[in-house]
Automatic annotation (TrEMBL):
PANTHER family: HTH-TYPE TRANSCRIPTIONAL REGULATOR YBHD, NITROGEN ASSIMILATION TRANSCRIPTIONAL ACTIVATOR-RELATED. Keywords: DNA-binding, Transcription, Transcription regulation. The lineage of its organism: Bacteria, Pseudomonadati, Pseudomonadota, Betaproteobacteria, Burkholderiales. This is HTH lysR-type domain-containing protein. The keyword Nucleus does not apply. The keyword DNA-binding applies.
């Protein structure tokens, strides 16, 4: 954007206009959005027209389902959400500083990074800064990148490659995420150093929804073994449900990140089977927004990640 255009935006842009865009995106109606903003519909219409005039582009299109943001609108709404989230974080941090507490840190993470990376660093952060409020969100990389875009998390431990625009993020690789085949403790010990997927064909599988990487990897491994995906599996996105089901039945088998499997095996809840994976493990790392400024707590978290290196 030309400097003159930036000067116009800086002098005329109002947060109320950006909040209106977010409300329009959520409600798809000028009437509903203006009500949510406690504005008259005419005032909301005027505010939208002023914003479109400043940007020299329409932001919405009318459809049967209501007002739908066009590419310009989606771009501005994305940044509006980031600004709103940053302002909300600013207000919270100012209030916490005034109250004598230590601010907040929100980290998004994939499941496999929790035991060996996230949990140890969170414990160190808590010991150093007992007044720091820390939020950990475990989800898929794709969902967490949306949260990162919206400012709901400060950083993500996951994969930027799942985005259709990975170049808009800073990505620093950390380590691989190997997977393990697991059963309950009541499952008979195999008694050999290595078994294949064919030997598990008669077992019922606990699998994962297709949007999770573990589902695709299991399908690939079975395909390499010349086997189809399990018929009539039990499907869940929850590792807790997976572990509970495996404990209840010696006939069930599943797949988990190796770091997670080791935690449950160490506590006598699961047994890791000696199944060698042929597929290469996926790599994950630290993902942050380009152009965004990390909070002091987030910067320290990232620095500790660098110092920790590969998880044990």
């Amino acid at each position: 954007m030309m400097k003159s255009s930036l000067d116009i935006l800086m002098s005329r842009l109002r947060m109320k206009q950006l909040q209106l865009l977010i409300a329009l995106d959520e409600h798809k109606s000028l009437h509903k959005a203006s009500s949510a903003m406690a504005m008259t519909q005419s005032a909301a219409s005027k505010a939208l027209a002023e914003l479109e005039s400043m940007l020299e582009a329409p932001l919405f299109e009318r459809a049967k389902s209501g007002l739908i943001p066009n590419p310009f609108g989606r771009c501005v709404i994305r940044y509006a959400r980031v600004l709103a989230a940053d302002l909300n974080a600013l207000c919270q941090e100012v209030a916490q500083i005034r109250a004598g507490t230590g601010g907040r840190l929100s980290v998004g993470t994939i499941m496999g990074a929790v035991p060996g990376i996230v949990a140890p660093i969170v414990n160190k952060m808590h010991a150093k800064h007992p007044d720091l409020a820390i939020e950990i969100i475990e989800d898929t990389s794709a969902n967490m990148l949306v949260m990162l875009d919206d400012g709901r998390v400060d950083l993500v431990i996951g994969r930027a490659s799942v985005s259709d625009q990975p170049s808009k993020y800073h990505y620093q690789p950390l380590t691989d995420e190997p997977l393990s085949i697991v059963v309950g403790r009541s499952h008979a010990e195999p008694g050999v150093n290595e078994i294949g997927f064919a030997e598990l064909a008669n077992h019922r599988w606990v699998t994962y929804p297709s949007y999770l990487p573990m589902s695709a990897l299991l399908e690939r491994e079975l395909d390499l073994a010349g086997l189809p995906m399990p018929a009539n599996p039990i499907s869940t996105a929850s590792p807790l449900v997976t572990v509970t089901l495996l404990q209840e039945s010696p006939e069930l088998v599943s797949i988990l990140p190796a770091s997670v499997a080791r935690v449950f095996e160490r506590h006598g809840m699961l047994r890791v089977l000696p199944v060698r994976m042929k597929s290469k493990s996926q790599t994950y790392g630290v993902v942050t927004r380009k152009g965004g400024e990390l909070s002091p707590a987030a910067r320290q978290f990232v620095q500790m990640l660098r110092e920790t290196g590969r998880p044990q």
